[in-house]
Amino acid sequence: MYRNLVTDLLNYEKITTTEAKAKEVRGLAEEMITLGKEGGLHSRRQALS
Fold first, then answer.
1. What is the pLDDT of residues 4-49, one digit of tens each?
2. Contact 5, 21 (CB under 8 A)
3. DSSP 3-state helix, strand, coil percentages of the chain (rounded to 5)?
4. Which of 27, 37, 33, 38 is nearest to 2 (CA)?
5. How many domains does the chain divide into?
6. How many CB atoms lie within 10 A of CB 32?
7. Which among 2, 7, 12, 44 is least buried, having the fewest CB atoms inside 10 angstroms?
């Protein structure tokens, strides 16, 4: 469920959800953005898993 929310957030730049879910998704989305900025092979593989 959180994976879908993070995917939608990154694709559409905003989502409608509850505050509790949003707090959880925020941390996951920030982690994905950090992995994307690193750009190495290891980072890409971590992001896909």
1. 999 999 999 999 999 999 999 999 999 999 998 998 999 989 888 8
2. yes
3. 80, 0, 20
4. 27
5. 1
6. 17
7. 12
Tokens 């505050």 — which residue? 19
Residue 23 to residue 37: CA distance in whole angstroms: 22
**CA separation (Å) from 25 to 40, 45, 46?**
23, 20, 17
Residue type, 4: N
In the structure encoding, which two tokens stand for residue 30, read together?
């920030």
Phi then psi dihedrals of residue 34, to 5 deg: -60, -45
**Predicted pLDDT at 11:** 93
pTM equals 0.77
What range defines the domain where residue 20 resides? 2-48
